[in-house]
Specification:
alpha/beta; 6 helices; Rossmann fold; nine-stranded mixed beta sheet; 11 strands; two-stranded antiparallel sheet; 241 residues
Length: 241
């Protein structure tokens, strides 16, 4: 089986003792998730957090942008480079997947709108309901419980994009553009242990009622494995196109 050359743009570098030193980084969490599948990948990590983006979009077959505790509404040293890279991928119809920060960055780069959520933090396991289905979204699920941790949200989709799924606290929880862009606000790469650690580390900055609700939600089963299958199917179909 041919390996897909997947470029992972890492937009986070957690240096905390409590989280960063205790768990693999974002890129490795996605690698661990994808490596549970039959399809094999050849990975190239781009430390976008430090300003690194691919010079030539054809360096890899497909790309993904990770999550980050940073806000896309702020200006970072990598903001201009990342926005330009996303637009280049869009122009060339290069397969691109974004999660959380990546989901928001893609929306913003292509002319959508991201705002601080009026509902505050959305933390814990929340069900995304999919009312629009793409061919790569197999095995079929109309609902997926997934880990969420965000305060910003995509409030307007870019032209040409369609909403795939919504959740109770996130109207645009997943979207796509034709067959070459796919996103989620969720964190399919999170594990129970990691989510619990992050929640414990950040609990003091979250309203007490929301933190309590987040802890209670962690008793549910999440299905990041299904979303990983969808991502892999997306990469395969987009590349074959």
């Amino acid at each position: 089986m041919n390996r897909i050359r997947l470029g992972i743009l890492q937009t986070n570098h957690d240096k905390s003792v409590e989280v960063g030193d205790a768990f693999p980084d974002d890129a490795h969490r996605f690698r661990d998730l994808f490596d549970q599948q039959e399809q094999r990948f050849q990975y190239r990590i781009y430390m976008t957090i430090g300003g690194e983006v691919p010079v030539d979009i054809d360096e890899q077959d497909a790309y993904m942008i990770t999550g980050s505790p940073l806000s896309v509404l702020d200006t970072h040293i990598f903001t201009d480079g990342l926005m330009d890279f996303i637009r280049r991928c869009d122009t060339a119809k290069k397969p691109l997947f974004g999660a959380c920060f990546g989901h928001q960055a893609i929306a913003l780069a292509l002319g959508g709108k991201v705002e601080r959520s009026k509902q505050g933090y959305n933390v814990g396991i929340e069900e995304t309901v999919f009312d629009n289905v793409k061919p790569w979204m197999t095995p079929s699920h109309s609902k997926l419980p997934l880990y969420m941790f965000h305060e910003d949200a995509v409030t307007e989709l870019p032209d040409g994009c369609v909403r795939l799924g919504s959740s109770g606290r996130c109207e645009n929880a997943s979207f796509a553009k034709e067959d070459y862009i796919f996103t989620t606000q969720a964190h399919p790469e999170f594990s129970h242990e990691f989510m619990s650690c992050v929640l414990k580390f950040t609990e003091s900055s979250i309203p007490a009622d929301q933190a309590k609700s987040a802890w209670a939600s962690l008793d549910c089963q999440q299905r990041g494995d299904v979303y990983a299958n969808w991502c892999t199917n997306f990469f395969i179909q987009a590349i074959d196109r």
